[in-house]
Amino acid sequence: MTIKQISVFVQNEPGRLLEFTDVLTKAGINMTALNLADVTDYGIVRVIVDDTEQAVAVLKENNYNVIVNDILCVDVTDEPGALHQILVKLADAGLNISYMYGFSNAGKASLVFKVDDLSKAIAALQ
Amino acid sequence: MIWNEPMETMSRDEMHALQSERLRDTVERVYQNVDFYRTKMQALGIEPGDIKTIDDIVKLPFTTKKDLRDNYPFKMCAAPQSQFVRIHASSGTTGKPTAVPHTRKDLDMFAECVARSICCAGGTKDDTIQVSYGYGLFTGGLGLHDGATRLGAGVIPASSGNTRNQLTLMKDFHPTILACTPSYAMFLAEALAEEGTKPEDIALRIGIFGAEPWSPEMRAKIEAGLGITAHDIYGLSEIMGPGVSCTCEHRNGLHICEDYFYPEILDPETLAPVGDGVVGELTFTHLTKEAMPLLRYRTRDLSSLDHSPCECGRTSVRMARIIGRSDDMLIIRGVNVFPSQIESVLLEVPEVSPNYVIIVDRKGTLDTIEVQVELNPEYMTDSVTEMEEIRKKIKQKLDSVLRISVILTLAEHKTIARSQGKAKRVIDKRQF
Prior knowledge:
The complex is a heterodimer. Chain A is an alpha+beta fold. Chain A has 2 domains: 2-69, VC0802-like (2-Layer Sandwich); 70-125, VC0802-like (2-Layer Sandwich). Chain A is 32% helix and 44% strand. Chain A has 4 helices and 6 strands. A 6-stranded antiparallel beta sheet of chain A has the order 2-3-1-4-6-5. In chain A, a hairpin with a 2-residue loop joins strand 5 and strand 6. In chain B, strands 4-3-5-6-7-8-9-14-13 form a 9-stranded mixed beta sheet. In chain B, a hairpin with a 2-residue loop joins strand 18 (352-363) and strand 19 (366-375).
């Protein structure tokens, strides 16, 4: 399935992530997943939230550089080889993953992938 | 030792007569050959015949860096390109450099002035000079090289950079004079101390440093670190390069080669010439230059003049160490950088807004320049790779226009102060 992911540019300075979460907290936005990619002087925060539209609106109001992408999200069972199976299918379809993150909880795992061709990836996993 | 006694010790009256004769000749040549000057003089209602002595110089029009840009590359020239034997260039504000051609006679004058400067600083033909200024379009390397050769001194054409190699040359070839920017001299002194070489283990006795502002405190550190007497040499490519003036053993100002370059100090507001000791904008008029003679070229450097006799015996006027600029030009590792150059590059890059902050600092002994820019919201991406490509692209553009490596930092949108009236675009943290 596809899911909306919000990416935000933040400078790598003390308190910058805090300011970001403060904006979302005040707007009553709940985060499902968060991933932080850092260079040295800045980072890109990628989040999946319960109300994407509202989150983008408040972030823009607060002058953040924001982009929303459709991204691949796969639910698997939390057991050895589950991710491996997915990767085999994506590799067989000739797809490249530029980044991914995931977490498991209560026997279930959710994986988020940035692939170069989203619809091809969905077809490969069906 | 005085390199050219007749010229450097002539009486003030003789100098006045020589300058007057040379100015008349220069004005006649630019009036005949340079549209820019003829038009300007006609607008002021003067002709070459109105210039009788050097005192009439105040009637002549000024020349600015912008005039050189507007007439790029050779429209300010009074000689045809077939007579150019070398073309130097300095960095420009819009990516285009400022061209400075020289005829054979111009390069003769250049070598003569540098030979005088090296002697002024105490050098002789028996010295060996390590020239650690950059060789190339920048006038420092080739200028010192030709002057030292004219003097008959030995030259080690080390050029700038490759510090380890510089130290090897210094220890093995026993140069007695080092010529480079003061910040590089400082860097070399520290590198020498780091590897445990003491000043008395090398043969250096004199330093000839320029192209950058430096303080007496910095001079003291360089002198202690290298075991030398440090001298200040001044010049700018539009006028010639290093050797326009240099300090003598008394180090009470820089002796100007005023038989070639007539100096004036102008009140920055009224542009009227001011008297000795008053700080203002240093302005030069070429008296013999053939390829591109400039009248009253405004250097934007702040200094003052002193015509009182110097104990060294030279009768030439002395200028005070440059104390600053009358514009926003920065000098970073010897390279001239204008904030407007950075702005014009950023305006060509859609990914960022032209809001920027320049932070100049000195890490150890070398200057650093950081340019902070804001990413435009439309170019936001979730990919670090793409973001880094944007950064790399802008850095490369800036590096090639400024001819110096910048640190480019992407900043969050709207975090950089908007220009409300006069925005503070430059933060200079250096302590000179």
